[in-house]
Every structure is written in C-alpha cells, then in structure tokens.
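Table S2 (continued). Query chain:
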Amino acid sequence: MDEPFDPARVTQALEHLPGWEGDASGLTRTYHFESFADAIGFMAAAAPRIDEMDHHPEWTNVYDRVDVRLVSHDVNGVSGRDVRLAEVLDELAGAVAGSS
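Corresponding output:
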C-alpha cells in the first residue's frame, strides 16, 4: 500500500503534472476535447489501463469535457498511485486529437 502524501509532496507532484490541481485530499483535472466522441474515446481508451492499475478515478463526462478526480481512498488522500494514474491519463489524452 502506498503512503499518503503530505501537502508539500502533493505540491511537488503537481509541479510535474501540468493542468492538474489539488491538495492532500485529491487531485483534479478537466480535459477538453473537440467532440463528445473524442471525450468518450478517451474514457474508453483509459478503461483498460485503469483496470490494469486497479486504481479507478472519479470522473464525469459532459459533452466534450471529462472531469477527473483522483484520490486513494484506502489512505484517505493522495498517493503515488494517483500521480501514476494522472500521468497515464495525460498520455492517453494527448493521443486524442484536439485535447487540452
């Protein structure tokens, strides 16, 4: 099990995660895509990777937008699993045309 990050470590992690915000209670990011199909495509592409990691985001989709919140519930805060998943999601979003 990963250990929870203290606030300073969360701040340090966020320096390497452009577009992400948060604090020791969770990390958040909103992805914008060119279309609903691109947004859903991103979520579908992410699903197998998320299952492999066995670490699932809280996320919602509204048209061309996907809002993501990451938190490790077992440690009641942010852990290394959240940072790793944020990196994976950024990589996958970057592969979708027109994401920001």
